Amino acid sequence: MRRRAVEFKFPLIVIRSERMLRPLEKLGRTRVMGPLSVLSLIAMPVLAGAATYFLLISLMAILTRPEVQQAQREAGPASFLLLPGINPYLPVIYGWLGIFVALMVHEGAHGIIARRFGYTVKSTGLILFLGIPIGAFVETEDSEIRQGRLKEVLKILSAGPTSNAVVAIASLVALVAIASSVTVSLPLVIESVMEGGPASAAGLRPNDQINSVNGVPVNGVLQLSNAFASIGIGGKVELGVIRDGNFLTLSLTLADIGGGRPGIGVLIREADFHLLAAEVLERYRRITTSNPLAFFAPPTFNVVVYPFSEGEVCFVTTDSVERCRTISSLFTHPILGSSYTAVSNALYWLWFVNINVAIFNALPIYPLDGGQALRKSLSTLLRGGEKSTLVASITTAVSIFFISMLLTIIFLPYVLVS
């Protein structure tokens, strides 16, 4: 019986089509899909191992660290749901983008590898939530999957999580490349000039903008201080300055401005924001090389401060006026300009959603991909048939174990309230 092309199951709308079957067929026959399907066989257990590891360390943290328990209680159980608008840390627009891409990639990979091995794909389709695309699906013939060869079925099942992992890693690499190239966007504008200092003697004025030191562009207080430190007290500098739209070059001799630090005797406007920007960049570049697991902490969680974060920070100026800026407004990108914020956020949430979908689906919980792979492997190994009692019992026991671990992580903090 032919199923309807459009089904309404409020609030969901399911749209089926056979138009994508031919592209799936063509993609399945390409040479690159052979090595990728083999890669997926290796990637699936790795992802399952990573998922198990994260569950174990999360459980240990909740059992032994009261601050983690408190943080989880404050976040609430909804923080474990990968649903924008329900999860308090998952932004609506970027979250739906990540979910849509993740499901399209996941289901598309299943369909492509299924067609590569000649398995039936009945239809493909989209799922809409109140008219908003939230995912995709590929309908295969269940009987063929149950009766198919072990290696082929495992490649089909592992293709989804593996493709999500590939998209996640590619997004993270692009994110690091973009966010690591940003520079401080705040101009080095002079707020005031110290009387009797080198700046005053050279004729620098308030509202002048420092542009370069000895011909080298500078765009932050820390970079300016480092440039002066490399020259030293008594050293000569050529300072590039923008005044009323005109570029000037002024010669100065660095003096001791306190504590043995060489300088010119000026106060930079919004210096606190400059120093914060330098600190954010330093911390961000440090985690990319020494602690990449920190990227599992989303920018909305306020654990890791990302240069593209929309979080706001405020400082009180010398004239007792509070000034506030978002973290992202402190930076710019040499190519993307201020639009780097939107690009970086999109890449981050593509990474975050796809890696979570990959890891979760690799868990040996039936009927997730990992659970189906476990059942198929046991069925072949024990030669008892797909519905043998022993296979079903082992699959159910393993599924219950991992589900229990997940539920414990979610609800244990509320039991441990002292």
Q: How much helicity do the residues have?
A: 40-55%
Mean pLDDT: 88
How many β-strand runs?
16
Secondary-structure element series: EEHHHHEEHHEEHEEHEEEEEHEEEHHH
Question: How large, in whole angstroms, is the Cα Rg?
Answer: 28 Å
Q: Can you tag this structure with a few keywords?
A:
about 425 residues, alpha+beta, Pdz3 Domain, 2 domains, six-stranded antiparallel beta sheet, four-stranded antiparallel beta sheet, about 50% helix, elongated
Structural description of this entry:
The chain is of the alpha+beta class and 418 residues long. The chain folds into 2 domains: 6-180 and 347-415, no CATH class; 184-335, Pdz3 Domain, CATH 2.30.42.10. The chain has 12 helices and 16 strands. The chain has helices at residues 21-29, 33-64, 66-75, 92-116, 142-147, 150-179, 198-202, 221-231, 271-290, 340-362, 369-382, 389-415; strands at 6-9, 12-17, 121-129, 132-140, 183-184, 188-193, 209-213, 216-217, 236-243, 246-253, 255-256, 262-263, 266-268, 312-316, 322-326, 331-332. The strands form 5 sheets. Strands 6, 7, 8, 9, 10 and 13 form a 6-stranded antiparallel β-sheet that branches. The N and C termini lie far apart (59 Å).
